[in-house]
């Protein structure tokens, strides 16, 4: 048994090394699933580790997170094929690790887009008999946020008109999922700049066959009184255009990780935490934030940047407990040992000298993960910054409340009336912030609406209450509030126009902060739905 366990551990270590070596060799690498890019490793983070003889791969970014057990790594001409298993799923699933998210040459990419434009024009002309396809183009227009991946134009019939936008199957998954943001902006542009003789009544969105679900889920929650939103798929082989009934996309499957006691997790990992704290400069120890990610794992953070971790578990071949203490993160995560304590102490000293409110902006440690820094500041000062939100229970990085691997919402809180508040934070411009935030709002709404009456309960409880979130509080049945927060000069100018097309059922608020938020948080302005 002991030999078998050692062999499993050796295999897990070898698989992890193959993945790490490939990513180190290809810093612009990407993770693909079903041919679509789900993680660009230039912006995503990852961790590979041996977990009880299994190679556990964790990937996370601002848009999604994923945890898989890697059972085999296959060498391919284009990269590595990772055969993985998801929790609760027996059949292995393949992920592709490739050198770059863009595998086409610029010439091939441009040719594919021109071909798609011609195909789209033919399909629209055949399907919408009597209408004229007009002004189809893909030219870059940075002033209005339009990129060359999206083919946009108009469908004219007498004095009536619709805005049209399409995206080809050769584009990345992220590009395809982003089409609704660009579609709303295109409709808004057509209405503002169009011929006064014509009324643009709606928007027709065309996506590749089999890639409609994200757009459909989002489109349901647009304001259909303001415009007629329609979704179609285009099979590029048959050139067949098929309408999608966005109100019949099936039940939204959501899952929720059970809440746990952070205080208990910290106490469980106390010995390892104390060992790390001894290596932190004494004057800086009060600046360390402890954040439990699981009941047996605690991270040490400085302004949102995790720099060390303690995992509490059973020692090998024994019933005794043992802490795994590491420093660094991702590919640089290192097991703390007697012979590298000095290196760890030097790293901590450098980190605390660099990462503070008055730090130098060209210092890499100061610039790293500004979003997590901002999130940390907001979470700790939320009661003063947003007095309408209860500050005693705020959940950070609520994990994977979605049907797939997508989704880590920044903050989840309750307002003073017990209504859920979904809080999304961006430290830099992000064109797609409203739609990404809408994804989380949809799932939080679904979980809150999932009301059941457990034995002994005097009222139906939401999935959040049954999973242990917000203990002692009664969560309102009202739909969640949606709050988007960022520095005033870093809020993308297209965010507000997109929000204006959200359903009237969504109570949203755009909150702009002062640029010097690292020193002190202050609200510069707030904009609300209906205002």
Which keywords apply here?
531 residues; alpha+beta; Trna Endonuclease, Chain: A, domain 1; 4 domains; seven-stranded antiparallel β-sheet; six-stranded mixed β-sheet; 24 strands; disordered N terminus
Mean of the pLDDT scores?
88
Number of helices: 14
Structural class: alpha+beta
CATH architecture of the largest domain: 3-Layer(aba) Sandwich
Give the total of domains. 4
Order of strands across the widest beta sheet? 2-1-7-6-5-4-3
Q: Which CATH C-level class of the largest domain is it?
A: Alpha Beta
Spatial separation of the terminal alpha carbons: 68 Å
Return Rg in Å.
Answer: 25 Å
Helix percentage? 25-40%
C-alpha geometry: globular
Low-confidence stretches: 1-5
- The CATH topology of the largest domain turns out to be Trna Endonuclease, Chain: A, domain 1
Percentage of β-strand residues: 25-35%
Largest sheet, if any? 7 strands, antiparallel
What's the β-strand tally? 24
Structural notes for this entry:
It is a single chain. The protein has 14 helices and 24 strands. The strands form 4 sheets. It has a 7-stranded antiparallel beta sheet, covered by helices on one side. A 6-stranded mixed beta sheet has the order 8-9-10-11-12-13, sandwiched between helices. The protein has 531 residues and is of the alpha+beta class. The chain folds into 4 domains: 102 residues; 139 residues, 3-Layer(aba) Sandwich (Trna Endonuclease, Chain: A, domain 1); 103 residues, no CATH class; 160 residues, Trna Endonuclease, Chain: A, domain 1, CATH 3.40.1350. The N terminus is likely disordered.
